Structure formats: structure tokens, C-alpha cells
Amino acid sequence: MSQAKPLNWKTTGAVVFVIALIIVMQTFGNDIKGPLKNILESKWIVFSVWGYVGGTFLIHRYLYFSSELKKDSFIYKHFGAYAETLFGVATYGIAGTTSLALLKGLYLQTFYDGLYFNGFGSFDLVSMFLLTSFLLVYCMFNTTIMLKDVLFHSETSAIEVK
């Protein structure tokens, strides 16, 4: 007889969240369009992404100054640790805000009568949506992992056996 495996709460929670999101969108889809448009057109979302990415990278850089930086990377070797941090902030910040700008254009073109991507077919627009969504999720996911490292940072260092 096989033993019952424990329930994976993270996966179960993610599935329940996605199902709940689908139900909410189906039920209140037209009511959500306006506020979502206002959020995408506001300037604070760009500042929020830059603040989140920049703050997380800088604090992470401060806490993990010597122990966990990739000292064999090209930027670190030639420009130093501070340049690597600045390039990281710029890369993730630009990726996040550019993804948001493209998603805003796709949203406004799809649900409103805006024309942002002239000459693009439906396959191109779907491909653009998938790629920019992935880029935004990738950027925010990796930044959140760094924030998790910052929030659960321990002052003790690992013991190295030589």
C-alpha cells in the first residue's frame, strides 16, 4: 500500500487563485475594464516598478556585498560591483516598464478603439502579449526573490570548511 502524499499548499493555492481570478473576470469583466485602463494609463505604475526594482537591488547589494555577488561576471570584472548593481537595476527596470507599456498598448487596442500596433495581425498581437507578459513576470519574479532574500536576511554567515 502506498502512503498518501501531503497536499502541496503552494500549488493548491495558486490553482485556487487562478480559478478565482477567472470567475471574477467572467463575472465583473466589464466593471474592471475602466479601473484597469486608469491604472495602465497612470504614471505611478512606472514609478512603482522603478522604485520596487531599484530599492530591492540596492538593499540586496548592500546586504550581500561580498559573499554572493558573481565575481566572474563580465560587468563585475571590468567595471566593479557598483556598476553591476546599476546595470541590474537598469535592466530589470527597463524590462518591467517596457513590458507594461507594450501591455498597455495591447490592452487599449483590444478593448478600446485605440490603434497602437498598426499593421500587426492577431497572431502577432497574441505573440507580443505572451512575450511581454513573460518578460514582466520574469522581471517581477526575480526581483521578488531578491526581496525575499532581503526580508529573511540573517546576520550570520555560512561556515566554510577549508
Can you characterise this structure?
It is a single chain. The chain has 162 residues and is mainly α. It has one domain. The protein has 5 helices and no strands. The chain has helices at residues 9-41, 44-63, 74-79, 81-111, 122-151. Helix 1 (9-41) packs across helix 4, helix 2 packs antiparallel against helix 4 and helix 2 crosses helix 5 (122-151). The relative contact order is 0.10.
Could you give the order of the helices and strands? Answer: HHHHH
The proportion of residues in beta strands is: under 5%
Model regions low in confidence, pLDDT < 50 over at least 5 residues:
none
Q: Count every helix, treating DSSP H or I runs of 4 or more residues as helices.
A: 5
Strand count = 0
- Give the N-to-C terminal Cα separation: 46 Å
Which quaternary structure do these chains form? single chain
Main pleated sheet = none
Number of domains: 1
Share in helix:
over 70%
* Rounded Rg: 21 Å
Structural class designation: mainly alpha
Summarize the structure.
The chain is mostly helical. 74% of the residues lie in helices and 0% in strands. The chain starts with 8 loop residues before the first helix and ends in an 11-residue tail after the last helix.
